[in-house]
Amino acid sequence: IFHRVINNFMVQGGGFDRHMRQKSTRAMIKNEAKNGLKNDRGTLAMARTGVVDSATSQFFINHKDNDFLNHGGRDYGYAVFGKVTKGMDTVDAIARVRTKSGDVPVNPVIIKKIYVKPAEIEAATNK
């Protein structure tokens, strides 16, 4: 699910099930925010705690250009690893859902399918 939604900022998922139970994760990974990719509208980035190398399974889609999340900005930055290539209108619709405390959607926003195409991965990382 997308468990955190803030219009004109980002939509975040990957950490909870539809009942808001936290999912188990693998080990934390090294922050790669220094990869030259920017937190621009439609890009996907790793979410993390305040600890620089703490990302696990959570990610977010930038709903607008968020320069302050780039490397060299606040707290080392947030690593961009992909880009929405189709369906940004769906991201826009998700960003507009009603939320409650903690920016949690009133009704669960379930991720049914995500398609990853190698050619799109290369194109997203070369911009």
Explained architecture:
- With about 130 residues, the chain is α+β, with helices and mostly antiparallel strands.
- The chain contains 2 helices and 7 strands.
- The strands form 2 sheets. A 5-stranded antiparallel β-sheet has the order 1-2-4-3-5. Strands 6-7 form a two-stranded antiparallel ribbon.
- It starts with a strand and ends with a helix.
Radius of gyration: 14 Å
Secondary-structure element sequence? EEEEEHEEH
**SS strand fraction:** 15-25%
Query: Looking across the biggest beta sheet, what order are the strands in?
Result: 1-2-4-3-5
Shape: globular
What structural class do you assign from the helix and strand content?
A: alpha+beta
Low-confidence stretches: none
The portion of residues assigned to helices is 10-25%
